[in-house]
Amino acid sequence: MAGSDGAVVDVAIVGSGPAGLSAAAHAAARGMSHVLLEKTDHLSDTIYKYQKGKHVMATPAHLVLRSDLDFDAGKREAILETWNRQIAEGKISVLLNAEVTAIDGVAGDFTVTIKDGQPVRAKAVVLAIGTQGNPNLLRLPGADLPHVQYQLDDPTEYVDEHIVVIGSGDAGIENALGLAADAAQGNVVTLLNRGTDFARAKAANVKLLMEAESEGRLFIRRETSPAEVRPGEIVLDTRDGQETIRCDRIIARTGSKPPRGFIESCGVNFSGPDQGAFPSLSQTFESTKPGLYVIGALAGYPLIKHCMNQGYDVIEFLSGNTDLKPADEPILEEKFADLPGRRSVDEWLQLFGRNVIILQELSVLQLRELMLESEARYFKAGEVIFTRNDPGSSMFAIAQGSVAVEVDPNDPSITVPIGEGSIFGEVGLISGRRRGATIRAAEPTIALEFSRNAALKLLATTPSAARAVNRISIERQLLQMFGSGLTSEDLAQITEVAVVEDKRAGEVVVQEGADDKDVFLIRRGSMVVEKDIGGHPVFLSYLPAGSYFGEMAVIDGSSRTATVKAAIKSQVVRFPGEAFMALLDRKPALREKALADMANRREVNAFVESRKDSFGDAADYYSQTAQFLVDNGIGEATDVLLIDETLCIGCDNCEKACADSHDGLSRLDREAGRTYAHLHVPTSCRHCEHPHCMADCPPNAIKRGTDGEVFIDETCIGCGNCQRNCPYGVIRMDAKPPKKPGLLSWMFLGLGPGPGEASYSWRKKKAESQGKEVPKVAIKCDMCSGIEGGPACVRACPTGAAIRVGPEKFLAVSQLDRAG
């Protein structure tokens, strides 16, 4: 075997995945002496371990394949057969069962140590080992139980099992689809997704997953993560608290990590300390160890076609062809063609990576992949980038220049600058809200626009980018909340020590009587505040997203005076008390505001203490009422329809008015929903702060309007994803009915079905008479957007029983006055 008999080969290739195979095939075609080292007894272990029958995609479709091996989309077995045949035909030097334990030496004279084998000497070494051999293990109680596995070989082996798949990337989705493919197997398959999007997965896989969910072949649990594994069951942290479900088998596909210790021992440096960091590489894939090259998933390019191109390219570089450009060069050249200046693709990428904060720890390979899904745009001074209330969920980064944010809609001259290297548009990315301000280029500006999927993938796979976006968004939330003339420089110290924490529904964030001294900002979700009176909790107040709490104990050094817990699954930012106090010391105006807020909360506490002897049943009533409202969605709502049943006379005017205002289809069901005491929450949209219905809307048809209303536009394709994702059952799928005759025609001529929603039989008969079938679309409350006078349901109520309110207006401690 070349290289194992003392002879020095031109190149030793470690790992026989797509990148390593392609490199070895091209080395053979080039006539280079080489050896391909594989630690298992077969080639391409990653593909080999794919589940049986898996369809392997050849994406990106627009990227040209450079390789001496063939590769087209197809079944796993067919691809492996093709590669094995071509490797044999190409007379490629392969050494199986050759586990590499060390790589020593210098460029031109490396020694590759093989476990239980003779060492290999090589002039250059190409590491193409991938990461799949090092899966991320679950870290939770019970994770070591025997029914937890990290690999799925053959989905047909499992019958009549309740199987939970953890992980929302391509591997997890493909495993779930494989297990649910044959209904005759009788498996109940549940896929857990920590978020609402599937940013790590290919669009084609997400489409198949959505189809499987709509057909009832599997279940998707969004905003859900595992909390504990038990024999025969799994405990889940959901948006509404903990839940236990049956579970016979767990397949965890939560990603993998490179064998960093081994790679660093070879002399290769990484781009950063994070677990997800990649090796630092040159444009030619050479690492910080001269003569040692890294390609494939280990380099940050996991797609098979990318890996195979890198295998081809690295051999070209080793052969002296340093002028070779990557296969994606023509695509990026076209993207950058309209930018000013005569820079090459490499020069533009260097500029982007150097200037943009969130890109500074990306390798050139990662940056190239990101730009394939993004746009680089040039704006002249004064040119509008986007306008207030425009729809949009992309995120921008300023590569050159600066922008001005028009903060006052009535006076465009009042602006706040955002400088080079920073980002904007992150609010639309995170919340799906319309653009909150008009932004113009303050000078000639080059901005990178990342699509929603590209941005979410960047944040999910690059910890440094996620930290930068977190820091910037926290800073801006603090500036908006505190005001008082603060600047970014004022907040630099406190944002550097801020920690973002997720809280499950019901989790206590601050405990009454505790002595901790942190301040919290509610970034997402909501909190309820309670005080212990006579051994039972009394509801004090509700805190929506954007509120802060915990400052009282920090400012006066007292113990916590109340308990604060998450009303729903929430996210908070924790600030050390010392940093908060240091900020107050530097900014007297902010101290005055904090003291005023603290005084108001002290008044609430004093009021509760003064009435504690007379609360009795009233305290229980108000606490139970508050809990009822939180349980029914008010904890994440921005606008809720409530009906006071002591005033409601059951006339159904609210439903009729809703139907008459919306093409004959009512958006609410008055009788449906739950009731506590005299308070009824009918089935009608809550217009959630972070709408569940927006998750997985293929045409992006669900938007948020200028007044906070969540609505569905005419691009809806009727897929039903929003209906399935809404936890409150307020979205219906129905066909837009034929136009009804007017009210006078009904009254005097008896034409049409009359006021309100037409019966299904009338709509069906009318549609049939017109000889066409009308497709169904998603229908939900839009708060009568564009209709003068506001929500028709409220205007039509003759007794004032129907009201639409924000949660903070309804859940107020002032109602406790009735207890006296």
TrEMBL record:
In the UniProt record, does the keyword DNA-binding occur?
A: no
Q: Quote the InterPro entries the UniProt record gives.
A: 4Fe4S_Fe-S-bd, 4Fe4S_Fe_S_CS, cNMP-bd_CS, cNMP-bd_dom, cNMP-bd_dom_sf, FAD/NAD-bd_sf, RmlC-like_jellyroll, RnfB_subfamily
Superkingdom assignment:
Bacteria
Answer whether the UniProt record assigns the keyword Secreted to this protein: no
Cyclic nucleotide-binding domain sequence ranges: 358-459, 482-601
4Fe-4S ferredoxin-type domain residues are: 639-671, 708-736, 775-808
Keywords carried by this UniProt record: 4Fe-4S, Electron transport, Iron, Iron-sulfur, Metal-binding, Transport
What name goes with this protein? Hydrogenase-4 component A
Q: Which organism is it from?
A: Tsuneonella deserti
